Amino acid sequence: MVVDCEELRKEARQLKRELLEAKQKKEALKPKEKEEEEPAPNSVVEEYLQEKKKYEDKRKQQPKKGVSREDQTLALLDRFKSKLTQAIEETPENEVSEPEADNDEGWMSHILQFEDRSRKVKDASMQDEDTFEIYDPRNPVTKRRREESKKIMREKKERR
Q1: 39, 46 Cβ separation under 8 angstroms
Q2: Residue 37, by phi and psi: left (phi above 0), alpha (psi -120 to 50) or beta?
Q3: What does the UniProt keyword field contain (predicted)?
Q4: Which of 63, 88, 115, 155 is a Cys-bridge partner for 68, taking CB atoms 3.0 to 4.6 Å apart?
Q5: How many C-beta neighbours within 10 Å does residue 25 have?
Q6: HSE-CB for 45 with a 13 A CA cutoff
Q7: Residue ranges of the alpha helices (H) in the chain?
């Protein structure tokens, strides 16, 4: 019986080793399969995967938080500012151009114009679309009026 137990233990150890080796082989094969990636059956899915990979690569290239990241952001901002001022300087003031589909920078030279309402003065006595009635139910004057109207309504009901 002692011999049987030792043989069983040896066999168990050998099986464990074989299982570990098989597991390691599978793990070694998985990264290779991942790199190969079978072609996508649909062109839209394939395009999506390419875009995803492109942006993952860009994300990995970006520096982590800190001074270098701030410097990069400020450099991008300065580049945008210079591009904007250049677009404003190049566009003549009186030119009205059709928006072009190829050129997406037409908005940069656009000047915001709006009505000048600073000269209009609000008069409380005039009624227009911008005048609103203010009603506060907590106001003591409003409470008195409400009580008075209730009394009048009760009196009318009693008369009937």
Answers
A1: yes
A2: left
A3: Isomerase
A4: 63
A5: 10
A6: 6
A7: 2-36, 43-61, 67-90, 140-159
CB atoms within 10 A of CB 15: 10
- Give the whole-angstrom CA distance, residue 72 versus residue 20: 48
CA 158 to chain centre: 64
Give residue for tokens 């190969």. 36
pLDDT tens for each residue of the chain, 160 residues long: 666 888 999 999 999 999 999 988 888 887 655 555 555 578 899 999 999 999 999 988 887 888 888 998 999 999 999 998 888 888 766 655 555 555 677 788 777 888 776 666 666 677 776 667 777 888 888 899 999 999 999 999 999 8
